């Protein structure tokens, strides 16, 4: 048996390295015991949490980044002087949609290109890149001297999140199907814990700089979870960086298979082959019934988050503008976490219904901003929580449907390409949020 890669355990395998006829002695490895299932579910939950953490924190800090607030008097909790600008909306010069675009466009580029070439790079290298770019994002924003440097940090957070999402969603195809729910719950937890920790630490008196420096421990948890917590089946990719060594050892031991040389899953021992461009196109075409509604859901909710949150400002509320924005982000992420963790209880196949409801929510809040008829910020809190519930439900149910309906040899590619839809919707919302922000902010 070859050496153990990283912290992933070696698994007894066929000494002859036969791919076609898996001996009876390795069958327990394809049906992991309860301990392995718990480890894998916890591992994917932590990977989801850590992968989306930096992305969420950058959106929660968007108002601070654009207003260059390094915790002013009262830590941003006191009333904002009226008349700071000529608009009734108390606007920043730049829309928070600009932060959203910096936080999502690199992700969109990665997700569009990665499904067609990412198999050339081992999983271990991809995870290391995610960790390093997440570190860089926190450092650049923490020590920023201006908006441009902060935006560069946001871009690094986007690269980390985008590459991580397409990597770990593809990785779920090698494990039991329950890890999809664990991953989705973890990404929802990232939203809640990321937004709540940023809100809590700044409310406790820490500056945004020190808050971001504390959060640098999160990428370390990601690397540890990938290398030491997961208990993969024998045909899953290992925690190594080099594919050449593994390929040379394939004939002597299945425990040292190439990182992406055999794309089977623990749910099915069918040996898969590389998909042609035409086959990939057919897979994408079959997924459109889920991807289009998911894109619409995310367009609507992120238009609310980055186009309307900043404009939903209540001057009579007991806290200031920056604090209101942070509360909006935290409540939205709380709703996402609840619904992304509900897949074991509720399954929804009609993703289009969630898209309709989210669009209605967007239109209502757009009228609320335009005519300012909402009497209380607490009503907005309830609507934002509801918005998060719809968004999280659409995400987890979309990926469950894609995983369940994909053929085993298509599943890894399908799970990777499906995550393009939400990113495309988010990118479009960021582009539209900027002119909408400018329009409202020009109103007297």
From TrEMBL:
The chain crosses the membrane at residues 42-62, 123-143, 155-175, 181-201, 213-231, 290-314, 351-371, 377-401, 413-434. GO terms for cellular component: early endosome; late endosome; lysosomal membrane; membrane raft; neuron projection; trans-Golgi network. It is a multi-pass membrane protein. InterPro entries: Battenin_disease_Cln3 (IPR003492), Battenin_disease_Cln3_subgr (IPR018460), MFS_trans_sf (IPR036259). GO terms for biological process: amino acid transport; endocytosis; establishment of localization in cell; lysosome organization; membrane organization; negative regulation of apoptotic process; regulation of intracellular pH; regulation of protein metabolic process. It comes from the Eukaryota. PANTHER family: BATTENIN. Belongs to the battenin family. This is Battenin.
């Amino acid at each position: 048996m070859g050496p153990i890669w990283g912290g992933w355990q070696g698994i007894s395998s066929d000494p002859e390295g036969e791919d076609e006829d898996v001996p009876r002695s390795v069958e327990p490895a394809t049906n992991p015991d309860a301990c392995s299932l718990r480890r894998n579910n916890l591992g994917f939950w932590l990977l989801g949490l850590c992968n989306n953490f930096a992305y969420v924190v950058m959106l929660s800090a968007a108002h601070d980044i654009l207003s260059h607030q390094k915790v002013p008097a009262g830590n941003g909790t006191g009333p904002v002087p009226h008349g700071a600008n000529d608009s009734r909306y108390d606007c920043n010069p730049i829309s928070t949609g600009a932060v959203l675009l910096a936080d999502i466009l690199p992700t969109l580029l990665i997700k569009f290109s990665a499904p067609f070439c990412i198999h050339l790079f081992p999983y271990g290298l991809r995870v290391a890149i995610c960790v390093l770019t997440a570190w860089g994002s926190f450092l650049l924003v923490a020590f920023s001297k201006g908006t441009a440097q902060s935006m560069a940090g946001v871009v690094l957070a986007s690269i980390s999140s985008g590459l991580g999402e397409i990597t770990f969603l593809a990785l779920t195809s090698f494990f039991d199907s329950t890890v999809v729910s664990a991953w989705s719950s973890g990404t929802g937890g990232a939203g809640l814990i990321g937004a709540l920790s940023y809100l809590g630490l700044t409310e406790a008196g820490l500056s945004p700089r020190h808050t971001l420096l504390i959060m640098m421990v999160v990428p370390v948890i990601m690397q540890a979870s990938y290398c030491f917590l997961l208990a993969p089946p024998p045909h899953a990719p290992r925690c190594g960086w080099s594919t050449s060594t593994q390929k040379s050892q394939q004939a002597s031991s299945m425990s040292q298979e190439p990182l992406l040389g055999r794309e089977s899953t623990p749910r099915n021992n069918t040996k898969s082959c590389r998909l042609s461009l035409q086959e990939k196109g057919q897979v994408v075409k079959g997924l459109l019934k889920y991807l289009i509604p998911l894109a619409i859901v995310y367009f609507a909710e992120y238009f609310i988050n980055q186009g309307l949150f900043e404009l939903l400002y209540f001057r009579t509320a007991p806290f200031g503008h920056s604090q209101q924005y942070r509360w909006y982000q935290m409540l939205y992420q709380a709703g996402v976490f609840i619904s992304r963790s509900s897949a074991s209880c509720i399954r929804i196949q009609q993703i289009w219904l969630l898209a309709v409801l989210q669009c209605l929510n967007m239109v209502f809040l757009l009228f609320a901003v335009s005519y300012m008829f909402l009497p209380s910020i607490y009503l907005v809190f309830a609507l934002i929580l509801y918005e998060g519930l719809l968004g999280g439900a659409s995400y987890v149910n979309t990926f469950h449907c894609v995983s369940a309906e994909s053929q085993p040899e298509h599943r890894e590619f399908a799970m990777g390409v499906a995550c393009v839809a939400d990113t495309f919707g988010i990118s479009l919302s960021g582009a539209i949020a900027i002119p909408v922000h400018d329009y409202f902010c020009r109103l007297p």
